[in-house]
Design brief:
globular, alpha+beta, Alpha-Beta Plaits, 39% helix, single chain
Length: 144
C-alpha cells in the first residue's frame, strides 16, 4: 500500500453557508472513515482547498468523484505524492470555515492560495509543504 497526500483547490458553484458546509463535512467524514482517508477541507469566500491522505487508489478515486461533482468548479490538482506519514491522522475530514474567522485569517488564506506558481504547484520558497500550511490554517480557525 502506498500512502499519498493529494491537495486540490476549487471554487464552489454556489456559495456554501455554515449548515451546508457542516453537512458536507459530516458526510465526507463518514465516507472517508470507511475507506481509510483522512484530511482537511478549508473553505473561504467560495474557494476550497483540500488535503486528502490515504492509500493511493482510494484517494485518487475520491478526487475523480470531486472533479465531477457539480458543486465544484475550476478543480485544480496541486499535489499528489507519496508520503511516509499522515499529517491529518486524527481527522477523517476536518473542516476549517474561514468565513467564520477574523478577516486577517481570510487574508492569510488568500495569500496561501497566491503562492501557486504558473505550473499549478506551490512555491517551495518557505521550505514547507502545502499540507503543513493548511494544517496551520485549520488550527488557527479552530482556535478562533
Amino acid at each position: 500500500m502506498t500512502l499519498i497526500r493529494l491537495i486540490y483547490t476549487s471554487r464552489a458553484a454556489v456559495p456554501f453557508d455554515r449548515p451546508a458546509l457542516s453537512e458536507l463535512a459530516r458526510r465526507a467524514d463518514a465516507a472517508n472513515r470507511g475507506v481509510g482517508i483522512t484530511g482537511v477541507l478549508v473553505y473561504a469566500s467560495g474557494s476550497f482547498a483540500q488535503v486528502l491522505e490515504g492509500e493511493g487508489d482510494a484517494v485518487r478515486r475520491l478526487y475523480r468523484v470531486i472533479e465531477l461533482d457539480p458543486r465544484h468548479r475550476d478543480v485544480q490538482l496541486h499535489w499528489d505524492e507519496p508520503v511516509e506519514f499522515r499529517r491529518f491522522a486524527a481527522w477523517n475530514m476536518g473542516l476549517a470555515n474561514l468565513d467564520d474567522a477574523p478577516p486577517a485569517k481570510l487574508d492569510a488564506f488568500r495569500g496561501f492560495l497566491g503562492q501557486l506558481r504558473a505550473d499549478g504547484r506551490w512555491s517551495d520558497a518557505t521550505g514547507d509543504d502545502p499540507a503543513r500550511l493548511l494544517a496551520n490554517f485549520a488550527r488557527l480557525v479552530a482556535a478562533a
